[in-house]
Amino acid sequence: MRRTAGEALLCQAALIAGVLATSMASADDRATKRAKEIVNGTCFLCHGAYGEAASELFPRLAGQNAAYIAKQLANFKSGERSSSTMQPIATSPSSEDMEALGRYFSRQSAPPHDVGDAAAAERGRTVYRGGDAANRATSCIVCHGEKAHGTENLPRLAGQVASYIVLQLRNFGSRRRTNDNEVMHAVAASLTDSEMLDVAEYLSTLN
Question: pTM to 2 decimals?
Fold first, then answer.
């Protein structure tokens, strides 16, 4: 049976779409393989093989937003974000590697931590949703969202290691960390240490 010109064009389009899909899948597979090589060679020591965090000293990367991870790696590499540990490590990966690492970790599951102090978590919920007690800063929910999942450019806070959240809030408040949103300086500076501990406890328990 002879095909009409329209049918022939449709067949060609379907063939091209199939080739492109296969090519994209192959590229994604290569990127994932490269990311796993980097993780198994270096990242796992602190962050775990799946970004689950090897200890409470290090941030959880599992479930983190891909673009945010890539940006932080680039900032470590350029020196825009300071870390005696991360800066030497971040010198090796290319921008493509950083993007691949971001996608790899973003696809991993990030189950919430168990509630350690229910009263603290409830106080933290109030801070997250309503801001600091002195009303000097806006609530966290405005930028990080109802479920604290963040955005493409803002970090997911849900399920993060509580001690790491506290450390970053302190760094923002003291302006030791300057590579991200200026708003965070004002927000963190307005929080008391106990409020930081409470909101970190709350965020660590979110899914």
Answer: 0.84
Domain ranges of the chain: 11-106, 118-204
Q: For the domain 118-204, what is the CATH superfamily, name and number?
A: Cytochrome c-like domain (1.10.760.10)
Which pair of structure tokens corresponds to residue 18?
């199939």
User: For residues 95 and 74, is the Cβ–Cβ distance under 8 A?
Assistant: yes
Report how far residue 186's alpha carbon sits from residue 182's, in angstroms, rounded to the nearest whole number. Answer: 7
Report the candidate in 205, 59, 189 with the shortest Cα–Cα distance to residue 131. Answer: 189
Question: Which residue, chain included where needed, has tokens 């991993």?
Answer: 108
Chosen CATH of 11-106 out of 1.10.760.10, 3.40.1390.10, 1.10.443.10, 3.40.50.720: 1.10.760.10
Output the tens digit of pLDDT for each of the chain's 207 residues: 555 655 555 555 555 555 445 555 577 889 999 999 999 999 999 999 999 998 888 999 999 999 999 999 999 999 999 999 999 999 999 999 999 999 999 999 989 999 999 999 999 999 999 987 777 777 999 999 999 999 989 999 999 999 999 999 999 999 999 998 888 999 999 999 999 999 999 999 999
Tracing tokens 């350029």 back to the chain, one arrives at 78
